[in-house]
Design goal:
Layout: E1 2-11, E2 14-21, E3 29-35, H1 41-53, E4 78-85, E5 88-95, E6 98-101, E7 108-111, E8 114-118, H2 129-140, H3 144-151, E9 152-153, H4 157-163, H5 166-177, H6 180-212, H7 221-232, H8 239-314, H9 318-386, H10 390-455, H11 459-535, H12 565-606, H13 608-611, H14 619-705, H15 720-797, H16 802-854, H17 859-921, H18 933-956, E10 961-965, E11 980-984, E12 989-992, H19 998-1019, E13 1027-1031, H20 1039-1053, E14 1058-1062, H21 1066-1071, E15 1075-1083, E16 1086-1093
Parallel strand pairs: 3-14, 3-15, 9-13, 13-14
Antiparallel strand pairs: 1-2, 1-4, 4-5, 5-8, 6-7, 10-11, 11-12, 15-16
Helix pairs in contact: 3-19, 4-19, 5-18, 6-12, 6-17, 8-16, 8-17, 9-15, 9-16, 10-14, 10-15, 11-12, 11-14, 12-17, 18-19, 18-20
Length: 1094
């Protein structure tokens, strides 16, 4: 980009319109901008920057300050820049927002900021301030920050960059090269490392809480004492030893459980034996009672057996009687089958007689029909002989009719053609008039549409602007929606954290209450145990607890319910559950608090402009308000797009209509030419038609004279109407003849077909009559055979009816079934009684044998032994129960600790890995340089900048100085990596850049600034600016150094780049030919600055 012409009006110190024509300075090289202090030398670059980006080059100059204090109220404030880029010329004009006098009345009004960018091609100008800035950034490929760093080396900035430390230089590079992303990675790794440590520490404390609940009742006193000591130090660093002790406690408990289980098994075996002995006594008494009952049942069964034997004797000959009844039944059934056969034969006989009658009647009917058809056939053959010549006469009349009709149609066609020619001529005349009228109308419409199109040419540009505005609005809306969702998620996390903290407080209160309850119960349990022991104390006998033979104050058993081990364990388990629940609530509250912090950091990063002045609770309404504004802007954009689309659509429709009108005008010209061609063709057709009409009329006259109907007739009326009437009469007469002959030919054809069909029908009737005669003979034979069989069956059956025979069979079959069933029941009952008698006899015998086996038993001794065994088992069960409770609790703790230990080991590995990664990224590795990830990336940029800077510094310092990045920091606690030293090649030493003199510092800082400018251009895609400015700093150089600096700047210009030096140094005025001289006017004709190019 090269500025060609700059126009400044009422801008900064320039009160009037001032123009700078950069083309007068040549194609490249150095030029000097000099003048009084405060005259506005740097304002030239401010004006260029404002024209392009709407902002000044320095941070202290704001857009509200651009309006000149020396300008008249009527003078407009604006900057217009003509610049070239890639061989094309662009115009940009921009005015700031400022207060100006009202056009009507008194007072001032706010003049809005305006901007316009004009392209060198057919593209529409860009008119809105923000749109112009975006268009310039897209055109040049540089943002405002990049442009000001590349195009202007401002006074003091490059000195600050030279002397900055790692921290300050890193902040500068972060803005220039956008390395803040790597800083975010560092912070996320640090947060992740802290979160992993918290997870690990929480697991470690959770394991200590589990181990705190271990019971040592099963352990030896040495191991129990060791475990209590570990509890006091919270098992810190002794986790493995704690698990070993707990595992040993479980082994001791298992051994004790095994011993108690063996004792209980032995006792259960003794109890079972005692129970079996008691069962034998009861069994013996029961057997005696059962034996008596069986003997009584046997006595009652004897008379029943006698009755069953007598009943069975009654049915001794039942089988013989049943056999005789069966024979009689079968004989009657055979006779019944003959009745059924007789009925079937009678039905078949009736069917045959009916068929015989039907066939005979049909045969008589067919004979009568045959005689009638033969008579009709003779009559039809006589009629056929009369119509033999009808076909030949029909063909003659048809030929004559067709010939005359064809000639008449030709004659009529000629007459019709004559009429059509007249009509077409009339149509062509009307068509020509319509074409002329339409052509005039279309030309007028075409002119109007072209005027409308001219008014709609800006529609496409308006649409492009509106769509750009909509795209920007959608992007902002999406950002706001994402931020709103994030704030809502934070609000949910905040509420969830408070809720979880409340739950934790409630859990802690429950734990405290339960701990007090447990302590009271535990003390009651100890008092109860002391009271129970005191009840067994006797004077002179040692106490089982202290061993004393004297018992001056024995424990007293508390009144009411005694707290036993089971109640105490139950309350302890409840306390453990509440403590675990409280720990879980604490961990969950911590996680939610971390999530809340993470979301808040993310909100702070994404909403920095809002948060510095707003609390998060007020952030959602503020975002909603901005979202509503965005929605309104989008709605406005949509409306603008809709209007622009309508205008563009209307433009397209107008263009289409113009094309259509132009096409229609061409088509009308073509239609006009067609009219002329058709008119010439009609005249030719009219001549030919009249000639053909005469020829056809002559031919018709010849046909009339030779007609079969009229003989040698002649045409008597030569008028056109008379001629046509005679032709029509002739055709009517011939038509009647043809119709008559066609009717006769049709009758002949129908008769021939009818005679053929009749012969077929007579032949078929003869065949049917013969078949009927054969059927009659066959049916008569079948009828005689069936009648003979019926007579034979009637003689065989004899007297008596079918119904009486069926009734006899039914009665005898019933008697047969009843006799059979009664005999079966009698035998069955006899067998059942005999079987029951045998069973009872066997039972009595079995009872006797069982009594002998049991023998004699002492019932009192058995009861006493059984009671003693049950009491011992109860005591043993209590011990096992108490031991089981201890073992179960310790086993659960052991398994939980094992699981937690595995998780803790994994969490510890992950934490160590994450911490190493975080320390590496954040430069906190012990014994290593404090180089962060972002600094490491910036070092690569810095090295490239230094390589570019040293090319110029070596030239300026005559090969003495070279800039070098300091590899190691002097203080291991400070950040390192971006500190800067200088190598003095004259003595081979390396020292800090802060040791350079004023002139040397200027050379180094100028070289560094130019190297930075080159690197930024390279990062922006190799963009080249053909113009740049260097502001002040040359006053500290001696003559030789100044010469070297100018030499370096000349090489920077390279004949193709304009380099403007802003300075007061008089030596530069002598060394640089091209100058822009800025003069401050304080009186005379006016105030304000002016510019002169020399």
């Amino acid at each position: 980009m090269r500025p060609e012409k700059l126009t400044i009006s009422a801008f900064g110190p320039y009160a009037d319109k001032t123009e700078i024509d950069f083309s007068k300075l040549g194609e490249g090289g150095l030029y000097l901008i000099t003048g009084d202090t405060g005259a506005g030398k740097t304002t030239i670059f401010d004006a260029i920057t404002f024209a392009l980006y709407g902002r000044a080059s320095g941070e202290v100059r704001e857009s509200a300050m651009f309006r000149s204090k020396y300008a008249k109220d009527s003078t407009e404030t604006f900057v217009e820049l003509v610049f070239s880029y890639q061989g094309k010329i662009y115009h940009v004009r921009r005015s700031p927002e400022y207060m100006a006098p009202k056009k009507r009345g008194t007072g001032q009004t706010l003049r809005k900021a305006e901007a316009q960018l004009i392209y060198p091609d057919d593209r529409q100008p860009v008119t809105k301030a923000k749109d112009v800035t975006v268009a310039v950034e897209q055109l040049l490929g540089l943002s405002y920050d990049q442009f000001t760093q590349i195009a202007m080396i401002a006074q003091g900035d490059f000195q600050k960059l030279l002397l900055a430390g790692t921290t300050q230089r890193g902040e500068i590079f972060r803005q220039l090269f956008h390395t803040g992303l790597y800083q975010q990675v560092q912070m996320k790794l640090k947060d992740a490392s802290i979160a992993r440590y918290k997870e690990y520490d929480e697991m470690r404390r959770s394991i200590a809480q589990y181990l705190d609940g271990v019971k040592t009742e099963t352990a030896s006193w040495q191991e129990a004492e060791e475990f209590d000591e570990l509890k006091k130090i919270k098992f810190e660093g002794k986790l493995e030893r704690s698990l070993e002790l707990l595992k040993q406690f479980l082994k001791y408990g298992e051994a004790q459980e095994k011993e108690l289980r063996e004792k209980e098994d032995s006792l259960n075996q003794n109890i079972r034996k005692a129970e079996e002995a008691q069962n034998l006594v009861a069994q013996k008494r029961n057997l005696e009672l059962k034996k008596k009952k069986a003997e009584k049942d046997l006595e009652e069964l004897t008379p029943l057996l006698q009755l069953a034997v007598e009943e069975a004797e009654k049915y001794k000959d039942a089988d013989h009687r049943c056999e005789e009844l069966g024979i009689r039944i079968r004989e009657k059934e055979e006779k019944l089958k003959k009745y059924q056969e007789l009925e079937k034969l009678k039905k078949e006989l009736e069917t045959i007689e009916g068929k015989l009658e039907t066939v005979s009647e049909k045969k008589e009917k067919d004979i009568s029909e045959e005689q009638l058809l033969q008579k009709k056939e003779e009559e039809e053959k006589k009629r056929l002989s009369i119509l033999a010549d009808a076909g030949e006469e029909l063909q003659k009349y048809k030929f004559e009719y067709n010939k005359l009709d064809s000639e008449k149609r030709s004659y009529d066609s000629c007459l019709l053609t004559e009429e059509e020619i007249k009509k077409e001529q009339k149509q062509i005349d009307g068509w020509q008039e319509e074409i002329i009228r339409k052509e005039t109308q279309q030309k007028e419409e075409l002119e109007q549409q072209k005027k409308d199109k001219a008014l709609l040419d800006s529609a496409e540009l308006e649409l492009q602007k509106a769509e750009t505005k909509k795209t920007e609005g959608l992007r902002k809306k999406k950002e706001l929606e994402g931020l709103i969702a994030l704030v809502k998620e934070f609000q949910g996390a905040y509420n969830a954290t408070k809720e979880q903290q409340e739950k934790y407080k409630i859990s802690i209160e429950k734990v405290q209450k339960q701990r007090e309850v447990y302590q009271k119960l535990f003390q009651s349990f100890l008092d109860a145990q002391a009271g129970l022991l005191a009840q067994e104390l006797k004077e002179g006998c040692p106490c089982p607890v202290c061993g004393s033979f004297e018992h001056p104050r024995p424990g007293i058993l508390p009144k009411g319910q005694v707290v036993d081990q089971e109640i105490l364990d139950r309350e302890k388990q409840k306390l453990d559950r509440l403590e675990n629940d409280a720990n879980t609530q604490s961990v969950e509250a911590g996680k939610r608090k971390e999530r809340q912090k993470t979301l808040w950091h993310q909100i702070q990063r994404e909403a920095q402009e809002l948060l510095h002045e707003t609390e998060w609770k007020k952030l959602i309404p503020l975002l909603k308000e901005k979202q509503d504004q965005c929605e309104k802007q989008l709605a406005d954009s949509e409306e603008e797009i809709r209007i622009a689309i309508e205008r563009k659509k209307k433009k397209n429709e107008t263009e289409t209509w113009i094309e259509k009108l132009e096409t229609e005008i061409v088509q009308l010209q073509e239609e006009k030419n067609q009219c002329d061609r058709k008119q010439a063709g009609l005249q030719t057709r009219d001549v030919e038609n009249k000639k053909q009409q005469q020829i056809t009329a002559e031919e018709i006259r010849k046909l009339i004279q030779k007609s079969l109907v009229t003989g040698n007739g002649e045409v008597t009326d030569n008028t056109a109407a008379g001629f046509e009437r005679q032709i029509q009469d002739m055709l009517s007469c011939l038509s009647e003849k043809v119709q008559g002959k066609e009717k006769e030919a049709k009758q002949k054809q129908d008769l021939e077909k009818l005679i053929i069909e009749r012969e077929k029908t007579l032949k078929e009737l003869g065949r049917v009559i013969n078949e009927a005669a054969q059927d009659i003979v066959r049916l008569e034979t079948e009828r005689k055979n069936k009648a003979q069989k019926v007579d034979e069956l009637n003689e065989e059956i004899g007297e008596g009816g079918k119904e009486s025979l069926e009734q006899e069979i039914k009665t005898q079959r019933k008697l047969y079934e009843e006799l059979k069933e009664s005999s079966r029941r009698a035998q069955q009952k006899l067998q059942e009684i005999r079987a029951e008698k045998e069973r009872i006899t066997a039972v009595v015998k079995n009872f006797e044998e069982q009594k002998k086996e049991i023998g004699e038993v002492d019932e009192d001794a058995l009861r006493e032994q059984y009671s003693r065994f049950r009491e011992e088992k109860t005591q043993l069960s209590e011990k096992r129960k108490a031991l089981f409770s201890v073992q179960k609790g310790n086993e659960e703790i052991y398994h939980k600790v094992q699981v937690r230990q595995t998780e803790m080991t994994a969490a510890e590995k992950e934490y160590v890995w994450m911490k190493n990664l975080s320390d590496t990224a954040n430069g906190k590795l012990n014994g290593k340089a404090k180089i962060e990830l972002e600094t490491y990336i910036q070092m690569a940029y810095f090295d490239r900048i230094l390589r570019r800077a040293n090319l110029r510094l070596m030239t300026m310092s005559s090969g003495q100085y070279e800039l070098k990045r300091q590899e190691q920091s002097k203080n291991q606690k400070e950040k390192a990596g971006l500190d800067l030293n200088v190598i003095d090649h004259y003595n081979g030493t390396e020292r800090s850049v802060k040791t350079l003199s004023g002139g040397e510092s200027f050379q180094a800082s100028l070289s560094l600034a130019l190297g930075l400018s080159d690197e930024i251009q390279a990062c922006a895609g190799g963009i080249r600016l053909d113009s740049m400015f260097v502001d002040e700093g040359f006053g500290s150089l001696d003559e030789e150094s100044l010469e070297q600096a100018l030499k370096a700047l000349n090489s920077l210009a390279d004949g193709r780049r304009l380099v403007g030096i802003i300075s007061h140094v008089s030596e530069l005025k002598e060394r640089i030919d091209n100058k822009i001289i800025v003069t401050k006017q304080c009186g005379g004709e006016g105030v304000g600055s002016s510019i002169r190019i020399q």
